[in-house]
Amino acid sequence: MSGTKTFEPKPKDVFVESTEPGTSPIWVKGPSSRRYLTWYTILTIAITAVWGAVLGILLPNQVQLIEFGGWFTGADAGIDLQQLTLLQQSIDAGTASATAEQARQLELLSGFNAARAQSLAIITSIGVVLTMLIQPIVGVFADRTRTRWGRRAPWILFGTLAGALLLSLMRFAPTIALLAIVFMLTQAVLNSAVGPLMTTVADRMPENRRGTASALGGFGNFFGGLLGGLAAGALFATIGLDFYFILAAFVAFAGVMFVLIARDRSSKDLVVAKFNWKAFFVGFTIALRNRNYRWVWVARILLTFGYTVSTALSLYMLQSYVRPALSQIEATQLAPLLLLTGVPVTIIAVFIAGKLSDKLGKRRIFVIVASLLMAASMIIPIVWPTVPGLFLQAIVGGIAFGIYLPVDQALFIDVLPDKRAAGRDLGVAGLGSNLGQALGPILAGAVVAVTGGYVGIWITAGVLVFLGAVAIFPLKGVK
C-alpha cells in the first residue's frame, strides 16, 4: 500500500488490492466506498445541473434575446411574441385574418423563429463537436497520468475549475458568434472532467456493484439536470443570466471536494509504455472493432440522437408549438417543471433498474425496453399538442430514461474489450453520446427551418430512438 496521504483506508474498509502498481484498489464496502459514492453522485449532480440550466433555460433565452434584438428593431422592438404567435395560431385555425401590418410582423416572426432555432442548434452542436475530439484524448492521457493524486483527479480538478471560469464568461457574450465560441470551450473543458469521473467506477467498484454505482450516477444525471433547470427557471425573472455565476460556484466546489474527500491512490508508480502517436490514434478504433462494443455504441448514438432532437428546442416549443402558445417567461418557468413531473417515477426506475440488472446479471433487455418505451412516448405530443400532452410525454419518457441511464453505462463496462484501457474506451463510449448530442440540435433546427413547425421533431425523434432498440438485438454472449 502506498504511503501517500491521498490514500488512507479506514479500519472498516474492505477492498481488493490492485495487481498493477499505481492503480486504484477496488472498494468492496466501508467508509471509503461510501465517501466515494457520495461525492461521485454530488459531482455528477453539479455537472449535469450546468447542462440542465444552460441548455434548458439560460442558453435558449440568451440566444432569443440576441436574435430578437436583430429581427425586431425600431417600432417593432416592443412586439409581444406571445400575442403575435397566438394570432398566427388563430390564422392557421381559420378563426382570424391578418391586416397588412400584422402580415409584415408575422413574416418577421417566421424569420425570427427559424433564426433562433438554427442559432441555438449551431451553438449547442459546435460545443459538442470539440468535446467529441477532446474527451477520448483525455481518456487516453488519464489512463497514463502519474501524480500523487492518482490518474483521474488532476483532470477532474482542471475540468471543473476551468469550466467554472468559462461559465462566468458566458454571461457577458454579446453576440451569437462569441457565445458559440465561449460555450464550445466551456462544454469541452467541463467534459474533460466527465470522462475521468465516469472511469472511476471501473477503477474503484467491483463488478457486482457497478450497476448500483451507475444507478447513483444516473440519479445524479437526472436530478442534476432537474435541479439546474428548475432553479434557473424559477430565478430567471429575478436574476436572469446572472445564474451563470451560481452554476460556476457549484461545479467548482463539487470538483474540489471530490478530489479532496474521495481520495485516490498515488499513480506515481504507474507503469506506462512509451507514447506512440500512431498507436494513440489507432487505439481509438480498438474498442469499435469489437462487435458487441460497436453495437452498444451505435445504440447509444441513436437513442441520444433521438432524445436530443426531442429536447433541443423545448423552450421554443412551449412558445410556438403547444396550443395555446405561452409567453417567454411562462415557458421559462414551465420548461423545468416538465422534468419535475417525471422525477418520482424516474428515480424509482433508476434504482430498480440498476439493482435488478445486477441481481439478474442482465443488461440488454433493460436497454431494449427503455428505448422502445421512449420511442412510444414521442407519439403523445403528436396526437395531443398541448401542455398536458407534453407533461404526459415527460412522465413516460422519464420512466424510460430512468431505466436506460444506469444499465447502459453498466453494459458498456461489461463489453469493454480491455479493462486496462477503460479510460480510453469509455471515452470512446462518451464520444457516442456526444455525437448524438451534436447531431440532435442540428437536425431539430433543420426540421423547424424546412417545415416551419415542430411536429416533425417528434416523428424524427421517435424513429431514431426505436432504431436504438433495434441496434441492441445483434449482441452476442451478453445477457
Question: How would you describe the overall organization of this protein?
Answer:
This protein has about 475 residues and is mainly alpha-helical. It has a single domain, classed as Up-down Bundle (Growth Hormone, Chain: A), CATH 1.20.1250. The chain is about 75% helix and about 0% strand. The chain contains 17 helices and two strands. It has helices spanning about 30-70, 80-90, 100-145, 155-170, 175-205, 210-240, 245-260, 275-285, 290-310, 315-320, 330-340, 345-360, 365-375, 380-385, 385-415, 420-450, 455-470; strands at about 15, 25-30. Strands 1-2 form a two-stranded antiparallel sheet. The longest helix is centred in the N-terminal third of the chain and has 45 residues, at about 100-145. The radius of gyration is 23 Å and the shape is globular. The chain starts with 13 loop residues before the first strand and ends in a 9-residue tail after the last helix. The model has no long low-confidence stretch (mean pLDDT about 80).
In short:
Helices cover 74% and strands 1% of the residues.
Question: Topology, please?
Answer:
Blueprint: E1 14-16, E2 26-29, H1 31-71, H2 81-92, H3 100-144, H4 153-170, H5 176-204, H6 210-239, H7 243-261, H8 277-286, H9 291-311, H10 314-320, H11 328-341, H12 343-360, H13 364-377, H14 380-383, H15 387-414, H16 422-451, H17 455-470
Antiparallel strand pairs: 1-2
